[in-house]
Specification:
alpha/beta, four-stranded mixed sheet, binds ligand T3D, single chain, six-stranded mixed sheet, globular, 2-enoyl-CoA Hydratase, Chain A, domain 1, 2 domains
Amino acid sequence: MHYQTIAYNVTDGVARLTLNRPERLNSFNAQMHEDVRHALAALQSDEAARVLVLTGAGRGFCAGQDLSDRTVAPGTERADLGASIERHYKPLILALRRLPIPVLAAVNGVAAGAGANLALACDLVVATRSASFVQAFARIGLLPDSGGTWFLPRLVGPARALGLALLGEKLPATQAAEWGLIWRCVDDEDFTAEIDSLAAGLAAAPTLALRRIKQAVHAAWHNTLEQQLDLERDAQRELGYSADYAEGVAAFMAKREPRFTGR
Ligand code: T3D
């Protein structure tokens, strides 16, 4: 499949989706939404893919909505932004959260607006040291969408969430990592190797266990302790019968590397 605005391929268990409109810092237009939607649908049914790496081409990760697609001149008809969220951004964020495989955001540069929250919707966020995160919305009279008002307070607490959302300042990736907004910040020259290594490791890991971990950690954000203990019990029961668990224990006992099949 040839896409106009993204690159997408699956190799050695690693699906890579690269937002590819570098001249606009990979901001979203309608075509890019369509391309990403199509690739994520293909990924859903691709058993060969065991991890998704989401990144951007050029010097940016994603600058959110392409503002040149929005007409705001006096006398022109305004776009219904609620309809845009409903049609594009909400399904995009939910699709990433619901993917049964881990999603690794490889934040290669600035992530702004919905682009920042797209990264935060991923399961692991690794950024280059030169990257930054910008809740740019208030600067143009909007509020953080694509889950921003949900992710931010949960990840960094209400004080920092409000500071980021109200001020719309650039948060350097180093500080984002210190605050726990993202998993890790990596020197620019080590970034590609680090992402490749993380992706290969996840692709070789016990797929079903990773799926249940992702689901359990996301469910914990709204579950009670008792509900979470029940969920862990049920998932552990299932995993205890998996081939990968048998392989993991056998490999440990034999002091060899495990070969997980994802079953
Ligand atoms: O509308 C709806 O559907 C509702 C949903 C909204 C979701 C949203 O995401 S709203 C928020 C939209 N995004 C922004 O407000 C971010 C706008 N961009 C910036 O603030 C800055 O560009 C950055 C902080 C991201 C990066 O700054 P910097 O100085 O590194 O780069 P730059 O020079 O500003 O940008 C480089 C080029 O990309 C430039 O084009 P040029 O002058 O070289 O031809 C710039 O216009 C373009 N660009 C950057 N972001 C966008 C964009 N073009 C269109 N839309 C963008 N979002």
